[in-house]
Amino acid sequence: MTPEPTGPVSEHPVPGRGPYAIAAGPDQALWYTLEGSGEIGRLVPGGSPEAFHLAADCGPTIIAPGPDGALWFTEYRANRIGRISVDGTVTEFGLRECGPYGITAGPDGAVWFTETTTDSIGRIATDGTVTEFPLPIAEAFPSAIVAGPDEALWFTMNRANAIGRIDLSGAVTLYELPTPDAAPVGITLGPDGALWFVEIAAGQIGRITVDGKISEHPLPDRGARPHAITAGTGDVLWFSEWGANRVGSITVDGVIDSVALPTPNSEPHGLTLGPDGALWVALEHGALARVVVAGE
User: Fold this and answer.
1) Does the annotation count 269 as an active-site position?
2) pTM score > 0.85 for this model?
3) Portion of the chain with pLDDT greater than 70, in percent
């Protein structure tokens, strides 16, 4: 049964444990990782959730649409990259022990991912061929990654306090953040052609242009611990406030607002614009939140 909305937000409980990241698939469905139970979930808005089982302890983390009509995801604890087709068929590709976390489709028809524990960026072709590119810095903990508008991939380095850019040949450029110890995590391509990211430790939203110019926007609640960020409609981006039980928004002009979630301590993580025009948020306590956005 679909719960009644609470203001602009409704919650949709899902089976499994620990919804962590979420993405819109090519099949008008939402696909999400269940980090706690080792599953991939699927929900068509208005329908019933279903789950596809992996190894219970594999730790599926970030999920993203691939270049081949499937969804690709990282298995952080199992050191694998997974692929799930829209009919639920799963293929897994083993890696060395590297802690894969962020993942995204690249402009070259391959999938790119971060290796948190080996200070590398990985590339996996759709046939499973893996190439790794080492970063020119140690203990960087590369985290989220996204394709930019410039035929390159952009990624956060959580412990190095920097944003990275890697081109398709593997050449890496690093951009240090102005705020010390900001600990960037999520990153996305904004509607203005810049890359937008969250600074979980500093309580700020950051923006970097493709020529490396950085600006930062402090949140009203500096302890909100923003975690993930995604582009919405128009000139708005949305981000999860993991430490404040809210979902925040920021326009490209820097206007910030937020929406409270109805269940206390729901731990919002990944979020995406759904096929129904609403914003959907993975809540680690065991549900997906649907947030009504302007124009829906």
Assistant:
1) yes
2) yes
3) 97
